[in-house]
Design a protein that fits this description.
The structure holds 2 protein chains of 2 kinds. By secondary structure, chain A is of the alpha+beta class. Chain A folds into 3 domains: about 5-120, Sufe protein. Chain: A (Alpha-Beta Complex), CATH 3.90.1010; about 135-190, BFD-like [2Fe-2S]-binding domain (Arc Repressor Mutant, subunit A); about 215-300, GMP Synthetase, Chain A, domain 3 (2-Layer Sandwich), CATH 3.30.300. In chain A, about 45% of the residues lie in helices and about 15% in strands. Chain A is built from 11 helices and 8 strands. In chain A, strands 1-2-3 form a 3-stranded antiparallel β-sheet. Chain A has a 3-stranded mixed β-sheet with strand order 6-7-8, sandwiched between helices. A two-stranded antiparallel ribbon of chain A has the order 4-5. The longest helix of chain A is centred in the last third of the chain and has 21 residues, at about 215-235. Chain B folds into 2 domains: about 5-10 and about 255-385, Aspartate Aminotransferase, domain 1 (Alpha-Beta Complex), CATH 3.90.1150.10; about 15-255, Aspartate Aminotransferase, domain 2 (3-Layer(aba) Sandwich). Chain B has 12 helices and 16 strands. In chain B, helix 1 (about 15-25) packs antiparallel against helix 7 and helix 8 (about 305-315) crosses helix 11. The chains are: A alpha+beta, B alpha/beta. The interface of A and B includes residues 32 and 36 of A. Strand 1 of chain A pairs parallel with strand 16 (about 400) of chain B.
């Protein structure tokens, strides 16, 4: 059975805002093809202020689908539509204290229902822009569609390539057979044959390690350079990283990627930290920028 | 009341009498059965006795037709791979769409290797069409592998008749009988079944022990080669304690087989009746008139199985579901899809599987809590409104699918 957080269980056993909102003026109905779950979100929006006064959900789905729906309604109540539009699936997952990788699509479904409801209120038609495939790499939550696209786009030829470009297969290695099957399929479509022994596609350029002492500016530029080199791998996940501030040996970053909020986020940050320390030759701690405000406030106080 | 275990098709409690006979093989008779000293001198006898107990339960002619393996999955893999290795010129396998993954995934793998796999469909009640089966049989077929009883619905396939048909066409026949052994009386010596898989933990023996029945004269190639154990047909030091435990479990299963088909069946029937009478919009899946006595699989429309299981678990009741979201997989049950169960029902299937350890009091408890659980979840469902489903549920709620 799934390892659900207490928060997920809390929202499942005692869902908030269950049922349709009476006299709702915005509705979003979406489903996830990968597990057959479906959700209807109804909102009552104040026409003058565009503030969401009430939110209700009706969900056909598993424990985490119901919990994601419930927590979503709690998050958006009181927000304006513009604020609500910025809510991501990571926000939903974070509020639930994380979701198992296989269940992240439940939070995606929540975000999509919200966008559909906002579009509905504004008289627009919401169109889904992402395609979800079968989950291949459970360590890093990477699906078949993502791997296929990266294999096509970057002419990948081996499992090692796929790991370098998408992270898939970089954990427990149990999915290597599945990745090989995808490579075989895509390469066959291109008229090539899968050969596990070919030389890997060159990975993103290596950055020279720091030898001489750096000025503060050089140091920050170097950190930027390292983050830049890691960006393609993060963007392959639909995510990104942004350097916000460097204070002493702590680098504050904004994780805007799909991996954030997933239980993998800590791992990603640890990976960035590891790479930074290798290049900089000093101890550097990578911390989400959200932590910075707290620290600064303490210093000011 | 203590927790109620109704997930016996997944695995069973080890019978205390089985544990008792196993203990000496851990603490006293722990010698290697192949050794010549007093730590081992009772082991060979223990294994022989166990072999006879298994033989008696499945009714085979010789005890040498019993090969002890590590589990049902190993028995299945051994059977399939042996059949194709022994007949390298035959490139087809006949199976069904509703087999256990231990069969289907091996077949999928062989398909990639160039084999042709015929996966027979089932009708809405989970039944096979024997006419189309007959047409598939040919001298190109290396093996027919068809389960005796389905793990999700309990539906029984006519394997005895199908084995006769295969035999008449000169085709080897294997059946995965892990759910059937101990619940359906069998006399293999009167059948044309060539190979049959047994799993210990489905009949109150421990996990990690299984049997492959191999009819004398059936061409065979071992999966594991090495020592002379099991007459060289399955190398590896014998799991003596578990083998002896399985023997005892088979003896008990034979003793209780009538109880299974009367008392256990009565509990199953009462639960099924109670639930379907009290709860609207639910139905039993599979072949109602030809099922295992201990299994019922009920589809609760417009709600999802994992949610039901979580609420059942909170009420101290263990069952399982064919829904997409249970047990680590996102795939909806292939058995429900094969039976063409509508999607709004297939996701809400719950399997209750009994054993001789259950009681009528437990049945009553489940009947008591189930309506509330279903009502709670239906209140959350977009397909439900008030006391019943919304009119034209599929049209009334038509989400955009991503």
């Amino acid at each position: 059975m799934w390892d659900y957080s207490d928060k997920v269980k809390e929202h499942f056993f005692n869902p908030k805002n269950a049922g349709a909102v009476v006299d709702a003026n915005a509705t979003g109905e979406v489903g996830s093809i990968s597990c057959g779950d479906a959700l209807r979100l109804t909102l009552k929006v104040d026409d003058d202020t565009e503030v969401i006064l009430e939110a209700g959900f009706q969900t056909f789905g598993c424990g985490s689908a119901i919990a994601s729906s419930s927590v979503l309604t709690e998050i958006i109540k009181g927000m304006t539509l513009d604020e609500a539009a910025k809510v991501t699936n990571q926000d939903i997952a974070e509020q639930l204290e994380g979701l198992p990788p296989e269940k992240m699509h439940c939070s995606v479904m929540g975000r999509e229902a919200l966008q559909a409801a906002i579009a509905n209120y504004r008289g627009e038609v919401w169109k889904d822009d992402h395609e979800e495939g079968a989950l291949i790499c459970k360590c890093f939550a990477i699906d078949a569609v993502m791997i296929e696209e990266m294999v096509w786009a970057n002419k990948l030829r081996t499992v090692e390539d796929v790991t370098n470009f998408t992270k898939a297969g970089g954990g427990c290695a149990a999915c290597h057979e599945d990745i090989e099957a995808i490579l075989e399929k895509v390469l066959a479509e291109k008229g090539e044959k899968f050969d596990p022994t070919v030389a890997p596609v060159p990975a993103p350029a290596k950055i020279a390690a720091v030898k001489a002492p750096l000025t503060s500016l050089q140091r920050i530029k170097k950190i930027e350079e390292v983050l830049e080199s890691l960006r393609p791998a993060l963007m392959a996940d639909g995510g990104d990283v942004e350097l916000v501030e460097v204070l002493g040996n702590t680098a504050y970053v904004n994780m805007t990627g799909a991996c954030n909020g997933c239980q993998m986020a800590a791992m990603t940050i640890a990976g960035i930290q590891q790479r930074l320390m290798e290049v900089m030759g000093e101890f550097i701690k990578v911390v989400p920028a959200s932590e910075m405000t707290k620290l600064v406030n303490i210093e000011v106080a | 009341m203590t927790d109620i275990y109704l997930d016996n098709n997944a695995t069973t409690k080890v019978d205390p009498a089985v544990v008792d006979v196993m203990i000496p093989y851990f603490l006293e008779q722990y010698g290697n059965p192949s050794s010549i000293h007093k730590f081992a001198d009772g082991v060979a006898r223990g294994l022989k006795h166990a072999r006879q107990q298994v033989q008696s339960l499945i009714g085979c002619e010789h005890d040498s037709e019993i090969i002890f393996t590590s589990c049902g999955t190993e028995s299945n893999s051994t059977a399939i791979l042996s059949a194709i290795k022994a007949q390298p010129n035959k490139k087809e396998i006949i199976t069904t769409m509703v087999e256990h993954p231990a069969i289907l995934n091996v077949c999928d793998y062989l398909e990639k290797e160039g084999y042709t796999i015929h996966r027979m469909p089932v009708d809405k009640a989970g039944r096979l069409n024997l006419e189309s089966y007959k047409r598939l049989l040919s001298d190109q077929v290396a093996l027919v592998t068809v389960m005796w009883a389905n793990n999700e619905t309990g539906t029984i396939f006519p394997v005895i008749e199908m084995a006769e048909m295969a035999n008449a066409a000169g085709v080897m026949f294997h059946t995965d009988a892990v759910q059937a052994v101990g619940k359906i009386p069998m006399m293999l010596q009167d059948t044309k079944i060539d190979m049959l898989s047994v799993s210990g933990h489905k009949l109150h023996a421990p996990k990690g022990i299984g049997v492959l029945y191999l009819r004398r004269g059936t061409r065979f190639r071992p999966l594991l080669r090495g020592g002379h154990q099991e007459r060289g047909r399955r190398a590896g030091t014998e799991n003596s304690a578990s083998i002896v435990g399985l023997g005892k479990a088979c003896e008990l299963a034979q003793h209780f087989i009538e109880y299974e088909n009367t008392q256990v069946k009565a509990m199953r029937d009462r639960l099924e009746q109670g639930i379907t009478e009290l709860i609207p919009h639910c139905f039993v899946t599979g072949d109602l008139y030809n099922r295992l006595p201990n299994t019922t699989d009920i589809a609760f429309e417009y709600i999802e199985g994992e949610s039901i299981l979580m609420l059942l678990n909170k009420a101290g009741i263990a069952a399982s579901s064919g829904s997409a979201c249970t047990s680590g997989s996102l795939e909806p049950s292939h058995v429900m899809r094969a039976m063409d169960i509508p999607y709004t029902a297939a996701h809400g299937t719950i399997r209750f599987s009994f054993s001789r350890y259950n009681s009528m009091a437990e049945v009553d408890k489940v009947i008591e809590v189930m309506p509330g659980i279903v009502a709670t979840l239906r209140k959350l469902s977009p397909y439900w409104s008030g006391d019943g489903p919304v009119t034209n549920p599929e049209q009334a709620f038509a989400p955009v699918y991503a």
